[in-house]
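dumping this here so i dont lose it
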C-alpha cells in the first residue's frame, strides 16, 4: 500500500508525503509493550506535545479490586511534532518508531485527535474495541453466543452478526456490540 493509498484510507486525501517538514502535525508513536505512560512522560519532559487517551477499568487481583487507568490504544501514543523534529520523539527510550508507510511517517488528521479528546473530556465511557469492517469473519468472544463464527454487516448504522447455515444456504442476523467480537480474518483476506 502506497503512502497516498494509506493516506486516503485514513482520511488524508491529498497527502503525498512531500508536505513541508517544518509543519507541526499529529503522528502516532509505536511504543514497547506496556510502556505508553513511560513514553508519554518522557516526551512531555522533552516538551513534546503528547496525547495518551486512557480509560478506567476494574481488575481483580488476589480477591482485591483495583481501578486502573489503561491506554485506550495499547502500544500507541499520539505526538504533535514536525517531521524535522521527529528525532526528539524517536530518542525516547520506550518509543520504537512512528507509524509509517515505506519509512515515511504518516500524519493523523487533527480532527480525529480532537474527536477523541472531546469524547474523553465529556466523560463518555470508553473502552478498546476491535476494528471491524463489513464482511470481516468474526467470532463472538463472550456472552450466550460465545464461540460462534460469522460475518459482520451494518444495517441502519448498527453492527450486526450474521450466522450462516451453509447446508441450507440460510442466514440469521443478530444485533451485537462490536466489543463482543474478535476478528478472525478480514473480508479482503477471506476473498483472496
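and the seq i came up w/
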Amino acid at each position: 500500500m502506497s503512502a497516498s493509498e494509506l493516506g486516503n484510507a485514513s482520511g488524508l486525501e491529498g497527502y503525498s508525503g512531500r508536505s513541508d517538514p517544518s509543519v507541526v502535525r499529529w503522528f502516532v508513536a509505536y511504543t514497547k509493550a506496556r510502556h505508553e505512560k513511560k513514553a508519554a512522560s518522557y516526551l512531555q519532559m522533552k516538551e513534546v506535545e503528547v496525547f495518551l487517551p486512557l480509560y478506567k477499568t476494574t481488575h481483580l487481583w488476589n480477591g482485591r479490586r483495583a481501578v486502573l487507568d489503561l491506554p485506550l490504544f495499547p502500544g500507541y501514543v499520539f505526538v504533535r511534532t514536525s517531521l524535522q523534529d521527529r528525532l526528539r520523539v524517536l530518542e525516547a527510550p520506550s518509543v520504537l518508531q512512528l507509524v509509517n508507510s515505506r519509512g515515511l511517517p504518516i500524519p493523523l488528521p487533527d480532527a480525529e485527535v480532537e474527536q477523541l479528546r472531546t469524547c474523553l473530556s465529556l466523560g463518555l465511557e470508553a473502552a478498546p474495541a476491535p476494528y471491524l469492517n463489513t464482511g470481516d469473519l468474526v467470532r463472538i468472544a463472550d456472552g450466550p453466543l460465545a464461540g460462534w463464527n460469522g460475518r459482520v454487516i451494518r444495517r441502519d448504522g448498527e453492527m450486526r452478526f450474521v450466522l450462516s447455515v451453509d447446508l441450507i444456504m440460510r442466514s440469521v442476523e443478530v444485533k451485537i456490540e462490536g466489543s463482543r467480537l474478535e476478528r478472525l480474518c478480514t473480508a479482503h483476506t477471506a476473498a483472496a
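The radius of gyration is 20 Å.
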